[in-house]
Automatic annotation (TrEMBL):
Name of one Pfam family that matches: LGT
Keyword Transcription regulation attributed: no
Binding annotation for a 1,2-diacyl-sn-glycero-3-phospho-(1'-sn-glycerol): 140
Uppermost EC category: transferase
Family to which this protein belongs: Belongs to the Lgt family.
Gene behind the chain: lgt
Protein name: Phosphatidylglycerol--prolipoprotein diacylglyceryl transferase
Taxon lineage: Bacteria, Pseudomonadati, Pseudomonadota, Gammaproteobacteria, Cellvibrionales
Length: 272
């Protein structure tokens, strides 16, 4: 069994003000995304070519992540609590964000940004899809430091006992599994795939497939939400129920992209 590293979840404390590592990971993720997006824009082969456009894009993404992530958590994971206490929705300092809600929030934000900039929505989504894993990976590191969303009990040699766990059981460090798959692996796969011109919507489709598949797998090692438990068929978690449709939608998008968008490539081929 491995020892959980004693990392204070509070990164900075100034009197009553506390800045948690989880919150900083959001900022680091947005900063990393801005840097990569700026580098891509500078090539002139993507729908965004100006630094100012990238700045606005990241702002729209941040709004989509926060608003969508909060709404997703409340409606996907806490509907009963919301109905009993509607003001809980706005008490974001109590915690509670959901990736699937954040994804929907970003999609809506990108649609609004695409309309503002006269860029085709799927061109914009293909542009940012390979960048998103930066924030996903860092967010899971934040979960690990904050001792939340830990794994199921296990006897594997790399199991950890999280100090915040009231049961003090050796568990899978599932946050690190997700950081490795949703962060590093997805980043490598999507960047490799998007390095060459692909039909419009193909990169977005691959994003949905890889995230849905990786999340579905990791959920077998992650402790289900205590108030939800395992639902469909007695073995599927809420995270798996939300991820499974992503895989099928992603497959359909890639099939459509290669069948209908074969001549609409992102990024633009290099000039001869």
């Amino acid at each position: 069994m491995m020892t959980y590293p004693q990392i204070d979840p509070v990164a900075i404390a100034l009197g009553p003000l506390e800045v948690h590592w989880y919150g900083l990971m959001y900022l680091f993720g947005l900063a990393g995304g801005w840097w990569v997006a700026s580098r891509r824009a500078a090539t002139g082969r993507y729908p965004l070519t100006e630094r100012e456009q990238v700045d606005d894009l990241i702002f729209y993404c941040a709004i989509g992540i926060v608003v969508g992530g909060r709404l997703g958590y409340v409606f996907f994971y806490g509907m009963d609590r919301f109905l009993a206490d509607p003001l809980w929705l706005v008490r974001v300092w109590e915690g509670g964000m959901a990736f699937h809600g954040g994804l929907l929030g970003v999609i809506v934000a990108m649609w609004a940004f695409a309309k503002k900039t006269a860029v085709k929505p799927f061109e914009l989504l293909d542009y940012i899809a390979p960048i998103v894993p930066i924030g996903l990976g860092l967010g899971r590191i934040g979960n690990f430091i904050g001792q939340e969303l830990w794994g199921r009990p296990t006897d594997v040699s790399w199991a950890m006992v999280f100090p915040a766990d009231p049961e003090q059981l050796a568990r899978h460090p599932s946050q690190l599994y997700q950081a490795g798959l949703e962060g590093i692996a997805m980043f490598v796969i999507l960047f490799w795939f998007s390095a060459k011109p692909r039909p419009r919507a193909a990169v977005s489709g691959l994003f949905l497939i890889t995230y849905g598949l990786f999340r579905f797998i990791v959920e077998f090692f992650r402790q289900p939400d205590a108030h939800l438990g395992l639902e469909a068929f007695g073995w599927m978690s809420r995270g798996q129920e939300l991820s499974l449709p992503m895989i099928f939608i992603g497959i359909a998008m890639m099939m459509y992209a290669y069948k209908r968008n074969a001549d609409q490539l992102i990024p633009k081929p290099k000039a001869a």
